[in-house]
Amino acid sequence: MNGQTSRRSEVVRSVSEGQRAWGGLWVTFLLAILGFLVIYPILMLLLGALTDTNPVVEGISLSHLSVKNFVTVLANPNVAEALANTMIACGGGTLIAVVIGLLFSWIVVRTNTPFKGFIAAASILPLFAPPLVAGVAWAILGSPKTGLINTMFKWVGLDWRVDFYSMWGLVFVFGIYYAPYVYMFTASALRNMDPSLEEAAEISGASAFATLFTVTFPLIMPAIVSGMLLSFIVMLGIYGIPAVLGAPTNLAVLTTYIFKLTNWSPPLYNTAAAVAIILMVVTGLLVFLQQRVLSGRSYTTVAGKAFRPRSLDLGRWRWFTFGLGIVYLLIVVVLPSLALIVAAFRKFMFIRDAASLFDMRQYSLMHFYSIFDNPLTLRSIYNAVEVGVVTAVVGGALAFAIGYTIHRTRVTGRFWIDLISTVPVAIPGLVVGVAYLWAWIGIPGGLYGTIWILALAFIARFMPDTVKSLSTSFMQIHRELEEAAWVCGKGMLETIRTIVLPLARPGVIASMTLLFVLAIRELGSSLFLYTSNTMVMSVLLLDYYEGGNIGKTAAFSIVQTILLGVLIGGANWLSQGSAQGSVARTG
Amino acid sequence: MNRKIFARTVAIAGAAVLGLISGAFPVQAQEFGPPELIAAAKAEGKLVFYTANFAEVEQLVIKQFNKRFPEIKVEMVRAPGGQLITRVRTEAAAGKLIADVVDHSDRGLMLPMEDMFQDYTPPNAADYNPDALISKKLWPRATIAWSIAYNTELVKDPPKSWMDLTKPEYNKLTGQVFAQSGGTTWTRIMFERQVLGEDYWKKQAATRPVLYPSGAPMADSLVRGEVAMGPLLYNVIYQKKKDGAPVGIFFPPEGAPVNPYASGIPKTAANPNAAKLFLNWCLSKEGQTFMIKELGNLTSLKEPPAYPEGFDPKVVKVWYPKFEDYVKLQATWVAEWDKTFGYRQ
Questions:
Q1: Torsions phi, psi of B296, nearest 5?
Q2: pLDDT single digits (tens) A521-578
Q3: Helix, strand, or coil (residue A439)
Q4: Are B153 and B226 in contact, with CB atoms under 8 Å apart?
Q5: Chain A within 8 Å of B81 (Cβ-Cβ)?
Q6: Before A266, cis peptide (omega within 30)?
Q7: Closest CA to A365 of A499, A100, A156, A554
Q8: How many other C-beta atoms are found inside a 10 Å radius of the C-beta of residue A563?
């Protein structure tokens, strides 16, 4: 008996030792990848911030390190002002984004509002618009002098005026454009949530409203906080919107300040790197705050029991929620789209009054002819889609591996994987682009000048977005489901394939879709890594904008939006079918 | 690999011999280089062109070049000035510079990199104005000039000179590209101070102009009516006028500041013959005429083959910056300009 026990414990010990060895090997492998993708470029960025040289041109030397760039930046009152503006714009924008994103995810997933699919589509549409295009669209609409909104107010005899070239204009546009981040996170969480908890609250006498704020929202807190944090951090790194809306009134934020540094003649990359490091510190503090808020609590809502998604009967109020959806669609999608359509089809954008706006002689297809006459257009579309697909597939797989390791295993070193994979979120693309160039150009094997170097940069840059988005899915799957599979004799890989992956599928598809969209739109990292054969759409779009062609910019952004819409629509169609459907198929 | 080189050599030699025998190279083509260069360039069949100019504008140039030499594919990389310099220096240091031609608007940034470029002289080198040359390796492929533009729908009493832009009645109506944006703007503010007077900036700043990061968004704002007038590079606003936008453009009588580009062929060019042929064509009378008429450029040729619309050489005085001043004064004067205009750094 004792012999049997000792033999069993030997077997257990050897199995656990084997697992530990594999675990160690796996963590080393992931850390090596993260080291190449994240740590190495950041060290290059740090080196740039601590010197006055280009590490590739002058060589890597630690003999002239100084904090001069940081002192220069921190002593500059304009940097403090840009930082304050950044915090106000991003903070205000995040509040609006959370309200909109949460409201619409609840309307779509948990109520019997009519035409929910339509509202769901509307809720993520702003995600398709590159920030530069969003800025241009709202400049066309909200300029105090020439804005279409003011033109229409004048036309109908109203003495109202809007001015989007202001802080509140920036906050509003940030809020409406980054609400989809919150929506995607919270909708996914609500869809995967067992409604029995809410039913229990209501049986206990809580009203639907009280249940919403005491049960539903607190339970999806990881998704809310993640969406909130992500939208805030993404706003921190956005250049296009503040560049267009802030420039006329000299309203500077950190990204526009950094862009100036990199664009000046001569360019000041080392100073820009110092500003970027400061931005990283601010973001790091925010991530730390998020960890503190979510630590030590359980949010599991997907367990081994089957459930049907719950739909709240709103009665007559469902038309009110439908009305909200229509108003949102009108403000966020229809108006800017109309502005872009006007700009894309109008020969030039001087609009004296409403009569001139409706004068059809002023419209033509000339901008579309012009962009498709340019051989770079089709090439950039092909390249962008290729980079987007590679980024989504490889980046999605890597994010899944990282997310699973962080949230579903207890291997030593997963804290570091979590930390390192979060770091890139803090670095503005305009600066990280040059860090990737410094880091990777010397790598033998012909990586530079290929689609792969762009894809690697995007994977690294957006790793936090995808890992955080997947983490929400992982945090909701109870361990008992995997344990049940292990009890049935399935190994880890088989358990991931048959249990975790099907349950997390909506989250995985959503993350890959997000990655694809971000890759298509990404500009900052592309600027230094593209070559004549690998030009992507975002670079060409910037070129049209920098060329002062608002018509061609609008026409090309419409092409890009349609392309993204078709591709994302396809991805959504692929991901249809809820978690339990997947379980039914694999169970 | 060796077989490829051998085949290419045979092709070049064959093409050259055939060309010489059959007289396939018309006399006009001689201005673009000797027959063996053209044959070698065609054998290379492509070149990579790095430019700080706008891609769209350069696409038109490439298209025109291809009408003359359809066998040579031009692959372009376009980046803003500062970014292009960083890219070139970094690629060169890593031994991965893929550019066969580098074309930049800021000669002050290009000159320190002179050693990176190979010796190159276009066939019509003697026809070029020495003021536009900073090195025997770098040539003024493009030469662009400043003008004043205004929105004809908004401005019924347009300015007629640089000094008019300082009139109090134009308060809050003008736009300006800020000084740090690059070599072209630096040329303009240098002209303003050296030609229009020490206090010109102050007078101009008193009208509280809207400041723009580059001429293109300002040109777009001018067409839309966000600003009513201001100094703009002629080639930026000319295209819009051609498309029918409500803009008027003129070259002020006090002078038109001119910024020649610096273009050269790196020593590492993989397609040096195609690069030479491309630059030869761009710098030739044919290439310069095309850029003047279609893009609104000027030229650094001593005898301009044409003038852009609205440019009367009897009236307009072109102004080239002294290159020594261009390099020496930049940092101090740009800082002073920022202070005068309240532009926050």
A1: 85, 20
A2: 887 788 778 887 888 998 888 888 877 788 899 999 899 888 887 877 776 676 554 3
A3: helix
A4: no
A5: yes
A6: yes
A7: A554
A8: 17
Phi and psi torsions of A90, nearest 5°: -75, -40
Q: Which of A167, A188, A208, A168 is nearest to A123 (CA)?
A: A188
CA atoms within 13 A on the CB side of A74: 10
Q: Of A562, A514, A119, which is closest to residue A340 (Cα–Cα)? A: A562
Whether residue B56 lies within 8 A of chain A, CB to CB, comes out as yes
CA neighbor of A555 nearest in space, from A540, A570, A567 = A540
**Contact between chains at A267 and B245 (C-beta distance less than 8 A):** no
Structure tokens at A323: 């009305």
Q: The tokens 């008019």 sit on which residue?
A: B164
DSSP state of B119: P
Amino acid found at B182: G
A111 pairs with which residues across the strands? A312
State pLDDT tens for residues B115-132.
Answer: 999 999 999 999 999 888
- Return d(Cα A477, Cα A550) in angstroms, integer: 47
Q: What is the model's pTM?
A: 0.79
B222 interface with A at CB cutoff 8 Å: no
**CA contacts within 13 A on the Cβ side of A547:** 26
Of the candidates B270, B291, B241, the one whose C-alpha atom is nearest the C-alpha of residue B59 is B291
Residue with tokens 């030590």: A296
**Best mutation target, A352, A432, A532, to test chain B (most B CBs within 10 A):** A532
Q: How far is B3 from chain A (nearest CA, A)?
A: 22
pLDDT digits (tens, 9 = 90+) for A119-164: 887 777 777 778 888 898 999 999 988 889 998 998 888 888 899 9
H or E segment at A108?
A: helix A77-110
Instruction: Supply the DSSP symbol for B321.
Output: P
